[in-house]
Amino acid sequence: MRVYLDCWPCFLRQALSAARRAGAPPGLQRAVLVETMAELRTLAADATPPEMGERIHRLVRERTQVSDPYRAAKREATARAMALLPTLRARVDAAADPLETAVRIAIAGNIIDYGVAESFDLEATLERVLHATPAIDAFPALRQALQRVDAVLYLADNAGETVFDRVLIERLPVPVRYAVKAGPVLNDATREEAIAAGLDQVAELIDTGCDAMGAPLALCSPDFRGRFERASLIIAKGQANYETLSGVDAPICFLLQAKCTVIAEDIGVAPGSVIIEASDRLRTVGGSVG
Q: What is the pTM of this model?
């Protein structure tokens, strides 16, 4: 998905929020905003929002000398989600269709996103998503794909959301490789946050080889790109993975909430919609994950 003009104010808000979380004084906050505007002026017309986000958060880290401005927020989100883990598992165990419920729980966790908002209500979002009618519902295609593959490549999104992913992974019938970011960016999950959520107990942890949001393949490592190209089923969580991969020819199932009006319009759904979207390749290609 390309950058829209409506994304620009959001980029500036992200830059200011990250600078403040890093403890930057007002003068440095202003400098970060000025440099962010300069970066926007040079942004390529075909760039994706996560590519610009990577520039912003690298800029903040360099100017403030704080390696992970969202470390405290990520730990808090993970702790809040871990406190819900027994309840989430119980909801799956009691469900008429445990796999579908686990998918919805994973989507509910996508509300943990400091790139969109500074606060969120996990419990209320869980109830809403569990009872919502998805605006796009390719769950049958996902279920069918899980019956014909022998492994899954699962692309992580945010810290805390990782716990909700764990609930789904525990219900998947095949082994999972869980791909996190190679370094801190926004509140995205790195290996540290994945381990804190216990993902190392249910999946093989790998990383994208870069610290950009989503999975912009041009920035990812050759090792990750090779795994991506060999994958016969990719579960891609969250908006940033949709933004970077929606035009890629690969067997992907996107699980997200359309929290941003720009993304909602790009997909053609109402803001807040629950999305289970299957790529064309996912509907037609079988095989195994290499």
A: 0.91
